[in-house]
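Lab manual, section 2.4: Encoding a predicted structure.

Procedure: take the sequence of the chain (139 residues), apply the prediction step described in section 2.3, and record the output as C-alpha cells. A sample record is shown.
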Amino acid sequence: MLNERIKNALHVLNQEVNSIHKSTDRYKVMHEIKQELESINKGEWWYLQPEYQTRELNDVEKEIVKFITTRYCDTSENDVSANFNLTKLEVEEKFHFDWLDWIEMVMELEEKFNVQVDEKFENNETKLYELAEHIQKML
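Recorded output:
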C-alpha cells in the first residue's frame, strides 16, 4: 500500500517536472524569437541571411567558437556560430559566461592574433561579430 502511494507520488512529480521542462523550452524559444525580431527591427538582420549562415567562419570567429565550446561542453559550435549577433550580456546569459570569461576570451584572442583590442569592446553592448570584425581588420 505504501509502495503504491510512493509510486503514485513519484508519477505525479515526474509529470510536474516534464511540464516545467516543456514550459522552460517554450520560454527559451520565445526569447530567441523576441531577440531576432528586435534585431530585425534595429536593422541587424544580416545574420539571418542564408549566405551568412552558410559562409565559412574566419579565423577570429573560429577562435571565439572554440573558446566558448571548450569552456562550456554543452554548447555546440553551430549554436555559437549562429549567435554572433548577441551582445556581451546576452552571451553571458546564453552561454553561462561571466565578465571574467569575456575578458579572458579577449585576452586569448589578443595573444593568438598578436593584436591589442580597444577597451570599448569590454562594453556590455558589444556584439560578438563587432569584436570579431575589429580583430579581423587589425590582421
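Check your result against the sample. Residues 1-43 form one domain.
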